[in-house]
Amino acid sequence: MSDTKQFTLSEDEIIERLRTDDPEIVDTIHTMCLDVLYKEEDRTKSLDAKGSTLLGMSGLSSSLVFSLGGLLIEKIKAVTLPVIGDPVQGIGCFYISSSVTLLLSILFALLSVRARADFRQMKDEDIFRTDMIEAGNGPYKRYMATHAWKVYQNNFMINEKKGNHLRTGHVLFFAGLLQLLPIIIIIGLYAFMKGG
């Protein structure tokens, strides 16, 4: 869940609050705004790395399930197992369920790493804005602090969405893996019954 209440000030309210004549305060706020912006960029990189890892693991798991699942269902002959009965139906149900869950995990991993058109960063025209540079150090730092804060807000909200997609993808991935356990148990019982 994104914390939209974290950002309660409009751009005009931020500019108004930065109207102080104390250069140290303006400098401190300017530095803090740039720091949080850089930390948010690091957070983006971390989320993208985690999303890429999840995408790879989900893809590998899905390919194994798709490759081996069909072979296992083909190879198991109709044998009645204690408590379970016919293993083919049980394996088939878990196979389909696990496959769908892992595919959904891949979808959410893709959503978490996709490039976003609304992701913002500091642009040349923002940094080298002539009217702000000509206004002097204080007004320029106020402008840059406000601009950096708005970029941070935008990217924070995007990263919250990415994080939510990543969290959902992880839950689905582990649910998909857990659904493989009954398949392993059924195959183990089948092997035990066939061998014994």
Q: What percent strand?
A: under 5%
Measure the end-to-end span. 53 Å
Major sheet characteristics:
none
Q: Give the ordered list of helices and strands.
A: HHHHHHH
Q: In brief, what are we looking at here?
A:
The protein has one domain. It is built from seven helices and no strands.
Describe this structure in words.
This protein is mainly alpha-helical. It has one domain (11-195). 79% of the residues lie in helices and 0% in strands. The chain is built from 7 helices and no strands. It has helices spanning 11-17, 23-75, 87-113, 124-127, 130-135, 137-178, 180-195. The longest helix has 53 residues, at 23-75.
Task: Walk me through the topology.
Elements: H1 11-17, H2 23-75, H3 87-113, H4 124-127, H5 130-135, H6 137-178, H7 180-195
Helix pairs in contact: 2-3, 2-6, 3-6, 3-7
